[in-house]
């Protein structure tokens, strides 16, 4: 099958580079006009009995699948958070898949584990993170997860372990443990709190008009819960909220957490990457007192999804919470205590070689290249923000890093505009809500976006607004 | 960067095909003689400032990383479960990475979701699973997860939702909910039970000498727990345990679960693939009464890791348990109710296009090809089992499908043999334990293994045994 593979892989590479060129030249729409079931109906009802040539499957990919995709690296994709990508990342995925190893323990592929330790340390240094998060620094370390969702769940579990003195491992949770965040935390936070068995998180108020956690409200609630016999366990703060890229005031929040002995997890999924640039290093303020921190390299660092990096300064709590050591995982390296086994840093037992992709991206782009990408996107967001700010009827709600949030006219008009934009296949722009009021947000991240893109997107938004 | 990519990708393909040929011809050892820190020391302490050519990074991959890997598709890799792979799977990973879409909702790439619905239905039909697990069948459906670990956690969460009448979502668990499995369940089961906040699972006894759950013991314990005011929530049964590929008696276990209204999750991570072959369809017996079932395509279906398929016959409980709908995820397709949003079927919010890989593998190999692979491995295991059974001093503990479990002499001698095999870089063979006694196990799965491999591996095992 190798010969068939070599020829099919060459075709795939050619198709992909043509695809990227089409994105760059706007030859493809950002999203399809797609009726539910259209792709499913184009496929047979059962798998074939006989094998088929790879080239035929590849051709069907472009005729059946690609027309039904939303192109997350398209210049006019300003929704959610654009998913990063680059040729270096794609090459690494090819090599990772081809080598096909499983790195659940050091012993099951020593180089996979050590490369990951080195590369997450590289990234921590590049972002200027506290030394307590480094593998080479003492009691901490980083690990690659699939998502900020999994990262926050792992952090919550570590916090439960620490808050319960380990008793949680055997007894489970019992209705006393509490998790805290604002209503502006990403939906993955309440979801993880729920999965960990804690029900709904306690919602901490934001300071009016900021979208950011009020540390006084946090302190008051922790005091009250403590007095009520509850166990405040974990506070999840956000550096860069989804709706408006608001920053919970980490130094003050961390201070409250420290006083109460509560685990502080910081979700920097999007904005954390900005710290690559010295001028944006303020996003790290207060992290030295955090117990864990997560950044999605797949959001703003040219690394394809999935690639979230979770760091902790309390490796022991995290790994003791997650560790499980059946006979079939016994091996001399683990027992020596001289190695890291990443199975104990994540929910799944098995894991692919996760670090190769980040290693390729950091080397191929260099820190200079990644900083330039951040600055480029910040520049485009600034252009859109200034335009919106000048336009009668529009209201600029927030402009932070590569994110712009805005309203048009009344709340009803903003909602009408959101509906019109959702129906327009020429751009993707996501709605959100702050303090009960709707807004629209645009986030820049496409490697192909230019000032001309901003102007085209703005023209479309303005045109739709006039009909609202 | 595209030109650099095309040339580097061509080199990567050539390197990978050479690598696979080296595995097939036994030109590489299965694992490295690797001292802790060897790879880390070969890497710089920081990421480079300037970008580097992809070809240099590729060359370093082979000089620095590959020598420190354990080769999971090597013919002499008989440990854990071999991680499946194939050129079709690798090609699909390349295309998936290159297209770089994110399929958290139908609307964020309709074709990604629909392809997944179709392909997991294909696989369900190919395995002869109950129609209740099909998307096209009514109240059920399948979804691709990263691992059997995540699959069982999702199932536990769905079970908690159903057992609590939904109250668990807001109130959390409270010490009354119980999960049940035997001591032979994979370690991912107690880990998932712990993460869900239930503490340790209740261990149900196995029928002596079988490694399989005693359904009478299960019934007695559920009765007792119910009388004690507890809430039996989920039973995790295993089709093919890790140590000896034992099968919990599903029809009897399902009967008990149904009587008690308890969610039954079945972990068929390894053995489930055998149902591709009509002669092994008995592994499915009893599944028609299961609420959820998981099979790892990355164990025995030529699909690279990660690729676990989780099916449920109770889609509503699963998605209601996991759903979360902040403003930024609102979209007309979701609100219409006409589409599936896989974010509500898994722990993370985001997800790559997971189905392309399984689609490529099913088509490239065809069901005939996948059945032939299962039969080949079963044949090799039979050859090793017969040899062990004939050899004085060795005791064949179990021989099921592609797995062989054995002891040598006393328990002390078996442990000594395990230690010698762990130190031998010429093969990988994993220890395990049943009823407190050690054993060794070998699982066949390498596409390159032949009868000659079996004989070479056996000669090595025999030689090491003579020194114990």
From TrEMBL, chains A, B:
Residues bearing PTM N6-(pyridoxal phosphate)lysine: 299
Pfam families assigned: Pyridoxal_deC
Gene Ontology cellular component list: cytoplasm
GO BP term, example: amino acid metabolic process
UniProt-recorded Gene Ontology molecular function terms: aromatic-L-amino-acid decarboxylase activity; pyridoxal phosphate binding
Named cofactor requirement(s): pyridoxal 5'-phosphate
Keyword annotations of the record: Decarboxylase, Lyase, Pyridoxal phosphate
Family: Belongs to the group II decarboxylase family.
Protein name per its UniProtKB record: Amino acid decarboxylase
Annotated organism of origin: Kitasatospora griseola
Record lineage: Bacteria, Bacillati, Actinomycetota, Actinomycetes, Kitasatosporales
């Amino acid at each position: 099958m190798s010969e068939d593979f070599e020829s099919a892989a060459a075709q795939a590479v050619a198709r992909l580079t043509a695809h990227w060129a089409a994105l760059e030249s706007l030859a493809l729409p950002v999203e399809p006009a797609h009726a539910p079931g259209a792709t499913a109906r184009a496929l047979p009802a059962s798998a074939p009995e006989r094998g088929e040539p790879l080239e035929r499957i590849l051709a069907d990919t472009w005729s059946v699948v690609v027309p039904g995709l939303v192109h997350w690296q398209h210049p006019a994709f300003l929704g959610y958070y654009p998913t990063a990508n680059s040729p270096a990342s794609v090459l690494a995925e090819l090599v990772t898949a081809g080598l096909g190893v499983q790195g659940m323990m050091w012993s099951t592929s020593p180089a996979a584990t050590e490369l990951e330790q080195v590369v997450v340390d590289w990234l921590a240094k590049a972002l200027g993170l506290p030394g307590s998060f480094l593998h080479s620094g003492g009691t901490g370390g980083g690990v690659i997860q699939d998502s900020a969702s999994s990262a926050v769940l792992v952090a919550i579990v570590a916090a439960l372990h620490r808050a319960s003195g380990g008793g949680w491992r055997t007894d489970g949770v019992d209705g006393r443990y509490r998790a805290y965040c604002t209503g502006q935390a990403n939906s993955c936070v309440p979801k993880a709190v729920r999965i960990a068995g804690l029900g709904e998180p306690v919602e901490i108020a934001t300071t009016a008009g900021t979208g950011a956690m009020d540390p006084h409200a946090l302190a008051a609630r922790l005091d009250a819960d403590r007095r009520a016999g509850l166990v405040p366990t974990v506070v999840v703060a956000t550096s860069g909220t989804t709706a408006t890229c608001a920053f919970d005031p980490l130094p003050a929040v961390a201070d409250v957490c420290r006083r109460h002995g509560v685990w502080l997890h910081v979700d920097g999924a999007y904005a954390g990457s900005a710290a690559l640039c010295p001028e944006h290093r303020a996003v790290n303020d207060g992290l030295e007192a955090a117990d864990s921190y997560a950044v999605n390299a797949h959001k703003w660092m040219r690394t394809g999804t999935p690639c979230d990096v979770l760091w902790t300064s309390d490796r022991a709590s995290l790994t003791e919470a997650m560790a499980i050591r059946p006979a079939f995982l016994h091996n001399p390296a683990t027992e020596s205590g001289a190695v890291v086994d990443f199975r104990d840093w994540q929910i799944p037992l098995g894991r692919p070689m996760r670090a190769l992709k980040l290693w390729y991206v950091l080397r191929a782009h260099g820190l200079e290249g990644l900083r330039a990408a951040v600055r480029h996107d910040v520049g485009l967001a600034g252009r859109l923000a200034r335009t919106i700010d000048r336009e009668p009827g529009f209201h600029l709600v927030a402009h932070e890093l590569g994110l712009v949030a805005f309203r048009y006219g009344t709340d009803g008009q903003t909602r009408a505009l959101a509906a019109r934009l959702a129906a327009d296949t020429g751009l993707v722009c996501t709605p959100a809500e702050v303090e009960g009021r709707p807004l629209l947000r645009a986030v820049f991240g496409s490697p192909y976006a230019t000032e001309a893109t901003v102007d085209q997107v703005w023209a479309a938004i303005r045109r739709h607004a006039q009909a609202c």
